[in-house]
């Protein structure tokens, strides 16, 4: 009985380690942040810069998705330019939620051309998480 419990426990631990390894690429650390407030881009970009230093050659992809009513502020190109320049230097991709753009009547042509529009930001975030991205929603 003791041996079967021990074997079962070892099997569960092995399965857990295998599952985690499949969801995380040890070669690169990839990150995604979903935010509903444009001012949060500043601390998000600072975080990306620090992680890039900390991770070194293990730093992979870093994406920020802007969702919700704040997408209206993406049309302020002067405000967005400082974030875009800093994101570019840090190899951070800024994305806009197409669902939010539609809901709040923002023409995708009015947001900076450096930003990609993803159809559904929440779905896109989940898809990246399934690929092993570290994720946080703000």
TrEMBL record:
<feature type="signal peptide">
    <location>
        <begin position="1"/>
        <end position="21"/>
    </location>
</feature>
<dbReference type="InterPro" id="IPR027396">
    <property type="entry name" value="DsrEFH-like"/>
</dbReference>
<protein>
    <submittedName>
        <fullName>DsrE/DsrF-like family protein</fullName>
    </submittedName>
</protein>
<keyword id="KW-0732">Signal</keyword>
């Amino acid at each position: 009985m003791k041996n079967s419990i021990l074997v079962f426990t070892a099997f569960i631990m092995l399965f857990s380690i295998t599952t985690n390894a499949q969801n995380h690429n040890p070669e690169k650390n990839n990150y995604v942040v979903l935010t509903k407030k444009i001012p949060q881009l500043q601390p998000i970009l600072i975080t990306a810069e620090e992680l890039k230093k900390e991770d070194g050659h293990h730093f992979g992809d870093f994406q920020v998705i802007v969702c919700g009513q704040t997408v209206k502020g993406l049309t302020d190109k002067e405000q967005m330019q400082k974030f875009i320049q800093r994101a570019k230097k840090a190899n951070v991709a800024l994305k806009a939620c197409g669902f939010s753009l539609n809901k709040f009547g923002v023409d995708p042509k009015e947001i900076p051309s450096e930003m990609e529009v993803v159809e559904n930001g929440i779905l896109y975030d989940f898809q990246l998480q399934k690929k092993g991205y570290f994720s946080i929603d703000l």
